Amino acid sequence: MTNQIHEMVRSTLVELFELDAGKVTLDARLNDDLEIDSIDAVDLLDRMRRMTGRRISAEDFRSVRTVGDLIVAIERVVKA
């Protein structure tokens, strides 16, 4: 499941924010490396909710700093 979520996150980031797929690594920091600001994060969370059918709470998202953190947060919500 991790690979599926990773691919979903990567393709979503590339599509939504017109990022180079090569930049979307597990260690890439959303804000610093990918320049995703708080408004973009809202769009990202909405897209993830629509794709998974589950909502990531703002509290869960607060600890998300990297693409890898986002994948872990999504896995937690999907498995709940």
Second-tier CATH architecture: Orthogonal Bundle
Overall mean pLDDT score? 92
Percent in strands = under 5%
Number of domains: 1
> Runs with pLDDT <50, length 5+?
none
What is the total tally of β strands? 0
Largest sheet: none
Structural class: mainly alpha
- N- to C-terminal separation? 14 Å
Order of helices and strands: HHHH
Give a written overview of the molecule.
By secondary structure, the protein is an all-alpha fold. 61% of the residues lie in helices and 0% in strands. The protein has four helices and no strands. The model has no long low-confidence stretch (mean pLDDT 92).
List keywords for this structure.
Non-ribosomal Peptide Synthetase Peptidyl Carrier Protein, Chain A, mainly alpha, single chain, globular, 80 residues
At a glance:
The protein has four helices and no strands.
List the helices and strands and how they pair.
Layout: H1 2-17, H2 38-52, H3 58-62, H4 67-79
